[in-house]
Amino acid sequence: MKYAIRIGLCLAVAVLVISTVSAEEDAFVAILKSQLEANGFQPAAALYRKPDEKLAPIGRVIFRSKGLSLNGEISCKTCHLKDFGSDDGIPLGAAIGGKGEGPARLMSGARLLPRNTLPLWGRGGKGFDTFFWDGRVDFSDNKKFSQFGAHPPSDDALVTAAHLPVVQIREMLDEDAFVEKHKHESVADAQEVYSAIAANLARVEVSASHELAAVLGKPVDRLEYTDYARSIAAFIRSEFRIQPTKLERFVAGNENLTEDELRGGILFFGKGHCATCHSGPYFSDFKFHVVVFPQLGFGATGFGVDYGRFNATFDARDLYKFRTPPLYNVEGTAPYGHSGSAATIEEAIVAHFDPLRLVKVTDMDNFDRYEFYKRLTLSSEVATTTTYLSDAEVKQVVQFLKTLSF
Amino acid sequence: MFTSTRALKISLVAVNVIAALAVIAIAVKLLLVPAIAKYWYRERYKDLVFQCDEVMRAHFIAKSQVSVAPSEEAIKNLRAAEVSLLACHDYDKLWKKLLTLGLSEADLASLGLEAIEEKSKDVTEFVKTHEIRY
User: Shortest CB distance from B123 goes to which of A297, A334, A343?
Assistant: First the structure.
C-alpha cells in the first residue's frame, strides 16, 4: 500500500513537472511566433519576385561566363559558389590573377578585394533593394541611390547592381591601356567600357547572345550590357531565391523546434536585441550600423581602414557603418563581417557585444589599435542595444539561426 | 710622325676613358642611383604616403561634416584638418627628391600601392589558421 502511494506521488510529481515544462514550452512557442510576426517574418513564397523566366536560363550562362571580364579571366561564379553558400568561403574576395576557387584561389596569388564576398540568397526578392556592404546601390523607399546618379541603367536595383562588379578594377577588370584610357568617373567613359563588355560577351557567348537577342527582339549587334545584366538578375532571382525553411514550417505549425532552437529564438528577439537590426522578411533592416569586427586586409579605404557606408555617401555620420546582413543560409556563408574576420557565427555574434574578445590589442600595431578604438567609440548605438550573452546563449542563438537554412 | 701617332693614341685612350666613364655615369644615374634611392627611402616613402593619406582623409571627412551637419565644432574641426595637411609637405618633398634621383612615377605609384595594401598578408595568415573550418 505504501509503495502504491509512493509510486502514485512520484507519478503525480512527474506529470506536474512535465506539464509545467510543456506549458513553458508552449508559452515560448507562442512568444516566438508572435515575435516573428511582429518583426515582419514572411514565408519564402511571398518574397519571390517572379523573374523574367525566359531570361533566367540565359542569365545562368552569362553568370558563369568569363566573357564578363574584359581582361581578367573571371566570372560571377568564380566568387559566388554554391559550395560556400553562394560566396567564396574566404575572408576577402580573391579576384583577378588567381586560379581555382575559394581558398585555393586566394593561395594562388589572386588579387584581393577589400571586402568579404556577399552571398546572393534573396537578392532581388520582394523588398530586397539595397545592395553591397555599403549600400552603394539602394533603391529602397523609392530611392534611386547609385553611382549612376539620376540615370541608373535600370529601375530594377538588382539589374543596376549587376553593372558594378564588371567595371570594378581588380575585381573583374585588370588595368590595361583601354581601361587606363576610360578610368574616369564619367557616364560616357563608363558607357564605352559597358559597350566593350557587351561586344565581348556577344563574341564569347554566341549562342546565349543570340537567344538573348531573340527574347528581347533586337539584333545581336544591338545588345547592350544592360540586356546581359537583366539576364543575370533574372538568373540570380530564380537560382538564389529564398526557399522554405525549418522556421517557416515551425510558423506554419508543421514542424517543432528543438529546445535550443526555441530558446535561441527567444534570445534573438529578446535579451540579445538582435531583431533591433535583424528584422523584416530577410532578417535585415537594410540600414547601416557600426559593429566592431576586427579589420582584416587593406580595407576599402586603404592602410587597413574601411570607412564603409561613408565611401558611398561621404556623410561623416556613416563612417564605419555597414549594411545589416540578411540571415538566410547564414550557417553556410562563413567567414563573417565586412572583411571576413569572424571565422564562425559564434564569433560574429560576439563581435556585436564583446568585440575586444576577438582581438589581442597588444599584438595590434599602434595605428590599427587607434582605428579600432575609433570604431569602438562609434559603435555605441549597437553596443548599448545589445546585451551580454553567455557562451551557452550564443550557441542557442546559433541553433536558432540554423533554422533559417534551406 | 711619331709624335702625331702618339698623340692620336693618347687621344683615343682618352676618348675611350671618357666614353667608359660616361657609360658608367649613365648606368649609375639611370640604374644604380634609382635602385639605391628606392631601397634607401622605401619605408620612409611608404610611411609618408600613409601619413599624408591619413590627414587628407581626415580633411575630407571634416569638409563633408561641415556641409552635411554644419556646426561651430565642425568648422573648428575643419580648420584643424586644414592645418594638419602640412603633413603632406614632407611627402611632396620626398616625392620630388625621388623623381630627381631617377625613380619613375610608376615606381612611386607602386610604392604607394604597396603602402596601401600593406595588410594583405594577414588575410592568408587568417585562412591558413582557420582552413580546417572551411
Answer: A297
Profile chain A (406 residues) by mean pLDDT over runs of 10 residues.
66 56 81 95 94 90 95 91 86 90 88 94 94 96 90 94 93 85 77 93 96 96 96 95 97 96 95 93 96 94 94 93 97 95 96 95 92 93 85 97 97
CATH of A27-48+243-404, one of 1.10.760.10, 1.10.10.10, 3.40.190.10, 1.20.1090.10: 1.10.760.10
Find chain A residues with C-beta within 8 A of B123's C-beta.
90-92, 106, 112, 296-297, 340
Rounded Cα distance between A46 and A248, Å, is 12
| Angle (CA) A246 A251 A253, round 5° | 90
Report CA A140 to chain centroid distance, whole Å. 16
> Cell numbers of A316, please?
561623416
Identical fold, A27-48+243-404 and A56-239: yes
Q: Do A317 and B68 touch (CB under 8 A)?
A: yes
Domain coordinates in residue numbering, chain A = 27-48+243-404, 56-239
- pLDDT for residue A294: 94
**Which of 1.10.760.10, 3.40.1350.10, 3.40.50.300, 3.90.1170.50 is the CATH number of A56-239?**
1.10.760.10
- Enter the C-alpha cell of residue A138: 539602394
Per-residue pLDDT tens digits for B12-48: 999 999 999 999 999 998 899 999 999 999 999 999 9
Instruction: Determine how β-strand A288-289 pairs with β-strand A322-323.
Output: antiparallel
pLDDT tens for A83-133 read: 888 888 899 999 998 888 888 898 888 989 999 999 999 998 999 999 999
In chain B, residues with a C-beta closer than 8 Å to the C-beta of A303 are: 50, 53-54, 115-116, 118-119
B61 with A301: CB under 8 angstroms?
Answer: no
* Nearest CB partner across the interface for A316, out of B64, B118, B130: B64
Q: Please report how the helices A206-216 and A56-63 are oriented relative to each other, as an axis angle in degrees rounded to 10.
A: 150
Cα(A359)–Cα(A293) distance, rounded to whole angstroms?
9
Question: CA of B11, closest CA in chain A: separation in Å?
Answer: 49
Whole-prediction pTM: 0.86
Chain B residues whose beta carbon lies within 8 Å of the beta carbon of residue A343: 126, 130, 133
**How close B82 gets to chain A, by Cα (Å)?**
17
Q: What's the pLDDT tens digit per position in A154-172?
A: 999 999 999 999 998 889 9
